[in-house]
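Suppose you are handed a protein chain with no further information: no name, no annotation, nothing but its sequence. What can you learn? This example shows the usual starting point.
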Amino acid sequence: MKQQDTAPRYAEATASMYPVISAVFVALLVISNVGATKLFVTGPLILDGGAFLFPLVYITGDVLSEVYGFKAARRTILVGFAMAILSALTFYAIQLSPAAPGWENQAAFEAILGFVPRIVLASVSGFLVGQLLNSYVLVKIKQRTSESSLWFRLIGSTVVGEFADTLAFCTIAFYGILTGKDFLNYIVVGYVYKCLLEVVLLPVTYRVIAYIKKNEPTYQAALESI
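A reasonable first move is to predict its three-dimensional structure. Written in C-alpha cells, the prediction is:
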C-alpha cells in the first residue's frame, strides 16, 4: 500500500497574486517605519505609531509563507528590508537639501522624518530578524501539520517572530531613552498588543489565505498531487 504524501504544498512564486501581496507587504512596512518615529500614550500604555499597521506586516508575511513557502517569503522580506533602508536614505537626502526661501518647516521635518541612525538600525534589524524567524517557524510547523492546524502555525510563528522583532527594535531604538518600568512597559505592551492583534484578526487571515489558495492555480495543482 502506497503511503500518503503529507509534505506541505505551496504555490509557485511566479503565481499571479504573489507580486500584489509582496507589494502590500513592502508598503505596510515603509508606512509603519515612518509612524514608529512617534511614541504615544493610551491610558497606562506606551506605544509607537507603528502599532497601527505593523502587525499587518506580520499577517501579510504569514500569508506569503503559508501559500508560497519560505524562499518566496524570504525574497519579499529582503526587498522590504532594502526599501526600508532606501526610504531612510531618501529622507536623509531630503533633510540635507537646502530649504527653499520662505519654507520654515525644516526643524519639524528633521524631528519627524530626519535620519536617525539609531531608529533606522533598530527598525531594519528588528524587522529582518523577526520576519525571517516568523516565516521559518511557520514553514517548519507546516512540515509537520500539512494543511491542518493553520491557527497553530499562525500564532506560533507570530509569538516567536514578534518577540525577536519587538525586543530588537525597542532595545536598539529606546534603551536609555526609556528606562526602568517605562522601558519594560514599552516592550511588554508592544509585544502583547501585536500578538493579540494577530489572534483577533485570525478569522480575517484565515479567509484571506483560503481565498488565495483557492484562486492560485499552482496551489490547487499541488494539492491535487497529494
